[in-house]
Design brief:
single chain, alpha/beta, Rossmann fold, Dihydrodipicolinate Reductase, domain 2, 2 domains, 7-stranded mixed beta sheet, 6-stranded parallel beta sheet, 15 strands, about 25% helix, globular, N-acetyl-gamma-glutamyl-phosphate reductase, AGPR_dimerisation_dom, AGPR_type-1, N-acetyl-gamma-glutamyl-phosphate reductase activity
């Protein structure tokens, strides 16, 4: 059994990691750390866990584990590792943005590998430390990386995507109030979203000549969880040729699937899957990509990376089912 501890277990990503690891056949959830909830039952904070576990949060750090998941805020993971001696034998999976970019991918003697399995599976298998990708970054990259690998991104990439309110985290903000979010849509960080940096690095890793813009318009949706993105590019290939490009790229992917039908958000909510669909409209290729932002976009992908690091079945603990209605 792989012994795992969670740092920052009171938030959304921490809660999702707890839910998965409690039912993981090859993992023992050793402890869940929270500075503000030490001594409280996990089910006092994550009320859906009532009847699932009697575990309590601890405010004491333990290092008698095989791996730590850092489910803390952006900037806090680096501060935690700077202030806390963690044995080199303990592997780290960080869900913040602190180590995702090549320029910031190390601290001390720890070097982080970018944890997108569809891009870096073999590097993840050998890694000691993983920087888990961002939610938008995951959704968008899975939509466009096959084109980059085939050298087909020869112009600007146009993206519109809508995310659920959990993407903003648990801390209350004016744009996450129910009365502001419900029956409403709004654009934010147009053309400037921070996930564009990691997307760009991954695209150029597969297609070094890529020098065009990724024009990304993110929307806040009036639902709790999930991301659906529409991506279009100029593409001279036929639909059948593009389908082969995507089919070949994802032939060995455990949790990314290309559908021959129009996709929708409920296919992926409460799962660790990404589902894609392709359409040709004249010389334009339309790619639709959908994920659950808290699972494939965060904690589910972290567990997928954990499985790869410890030579487990890549889908262990992640055979989650969507809610049909």
């Amino acid at each position: 059994m792989v012994r795992v501890g969670i740092i920052g277990g009171a938030g959304y990503t921490g809660g999702e990691a707890i839910r998965i690891l409690l039912n993981h056949p090859d993992v023992e959830l050793a402890f869940v750390h929270s500075n503000s909830n030490g001594g409280n039952r996990l089910s006092d904070v994550h009320i859906d866990l009532l009847g699932e576990t009697d575990m309590r949060f601890t405010d004491q750090l333990r290092t008698d584990v095989d791996a730590l998941m850092l489910c803390v805020g952006h900037g806090d993971a680096r501060k935690f590792l700077e202030a806390t001696p963690i044995p080199d034998s303990v592997r780290i999976i960080d869900l913040s943005q602190d180590f995702r970019l090549q320029a910031t991918a190390s601290i001390g003697n720890r070097q982080f590998v970018y944890g997108l399995p569809e891009l870096n599976r073999e590097k993840i298998r050998a890694a000691r430390n993983i920087a888990n990708p961002g939610c938008f970054a995951t959704c968008l990259q899975l939509g466009i990386l096959p084109l980059a690998a085939a050298g087909l991104l020869t112009g600007d990439v146009q993206v519109t995507a809508v995310t659920g309110s959990t993407g903003a985290g648990q801390k209350l903000a004016p744009t996450s109030h129910f009365s502001q979010r419900v029956n409403n849509l709004s654009v934010y960080k147009a053309f400037e979203h921070q996930h564009l940096n990691e997307i760009g690095e991954s695209v150029r890793a597969l297609m070094p000549s890529f020098s065009h813009a990724i024009n990304f318009i993110p929307y806040r949706g009036d639902f709790a969880r999930g991301i659906i993105a529409s991506i279009y590019v100029d593409c001279p290939l036929s639909l059948e040729e593009v389908q082969k490009v995507y089919g070949d790229f994802y032939a060995d992917a455990a949790l990314t699937f290309v559908s021959d039908r129009n996709i929708y958000l409920k296919q992926v909510v409460n799962t660790a899957k990404c589902v894609l669909s392709l359409e040709k409209h004249g010389d334009k290729l339309l790619v639709m990509s959908a994920i659950d932002n808290l699972l494939k976009g965060a904690s589910g992908q972290a567990v997928q990376n954990l499985n790869l690091m410890f030579s487990l079945d890549e889908r262990a603990g992640l055979r989650l089912k969507p809610v049909a209605f």
